[in-house]
Amino acid sequence: MREKDWRDSKAVCALSDSDRHLGHIVFNRTHWKAFDATHLDESRTGFRYLGTFQTVDSAKAAVEESVAPTGCTL
User: What are the E-state strand segments in the chain?
Assistant: First the structure.
């Protein structure tokens, strides 16, 4: 499994591994919006929106949970 790493700034944080962008969070005045970059949204025109969060840690946790392997093996 590839190691995941957060890149942080004051208003945007992005999660990636060595091969791809996995997700990001964006600060919007009073809260953080989280996105899963590994899945499309319902309209198939952008990243899957995960919700609005009060803290950076809760937004990051939502992205990490969304992109985590499901544990299913074939």
Answer: 5-8, 12-16, 21-28, 31-40, 47-53
Q: Is residue 10 part of a domain?
A: yes
Read off the pTM. Answer: 0.87
C-alpha 40/C-alpha 46 separation (Å) is 6
Q: Which structural domain range is residue 29 located in?
A: 5-67
Map residue 13 onto helix, strand or coil: strand
- The vertex-40 CA angle with 24 and 53, nearest 5°, equals 40
Residue 42 lies in a domain: yes
pLDDT digits (tens, 9 = 90+) for 25-52: 999 999 999 999 999 999 999 999 999 9
Q: Which of 21, 25, 23, 30 is nearest to 9 (CA)?
A: 25
- As for how many domains the chain has, the answer is 1
